[in-house]
Specification:
Layout lengths: L1 H41 L3 H37 L5 H30 L4 H9 L4 H17 L1
Helix pairs in contact: 1-5, 2-3
């Protein structure tokens, strides 16, 4: 009985890890397709593509650090909330630190977008500005829905 229970638990854990890994791979594929579609619409030169990739890699490194710091602070907040001696000043201090990191993430994203925008020629900038903010996300969802219909 115990062996069957352990096997069932191990199977559930393995499936959940596999499912999360698969979902992450799907998100990465979707992001790559959306990036390729945007590059295609903007008709980037090879030099622009190379510079965008360099900017993207640097941006990813910064975001990894910021997100790791955010996760650490969120874990600290969870521990603080579980503490019997929760006090207002420590709680508010941690909330402010979390919000500062979130703000840094938003500013970093905006700077990254502007770094790419500044690489574009006037015609590409016009196309960029005409693209609605959620347009690429909607395109990604359409591609995902189409893929699900094909697999049914």
């Amino acid at each position: 009985m115990k062996t069957k229970l352990l096997v069932a638990i191990a199977t559930i854990i393995a499936l959940s890890i596999f499912t999360e890994s698969f979902a992450q791979m799907e998100r990465m594929k979707m992001r790559d397709k959306m990036r390729d579609k945007m590059e295609e619409r903007l008709n980037l030169t090879d030099a622009q593509k190379a510079k965008v990739e360099e900017l993207r890699l640097n941006h990813q490194k910064k975001m990894i650090d910021l997100k790791a710091n955010l996760e650490k602070k969120e874990v600290e907040l969870k521990a603080l909330r579980a503490n019997d001696k929760l006090n207002r000043s420590e709680f508010l201090k941690l909330i402010k630190e979390i919000n500062e990191i979130k703000n840094s993430i938003a500013v970093e994203r905006a700077n990254h977008q502007m770094d790419i925008y500044e690489l574009l020629d006037n015609n590409q900038k016009k196309i960029w500005r005409e693209m609605k903010p959620g347009e690429m996300m909607k395109e990604g969802k359409r591609m995902k829905m189409h893929r699900h219909r094909d697999s049914d």
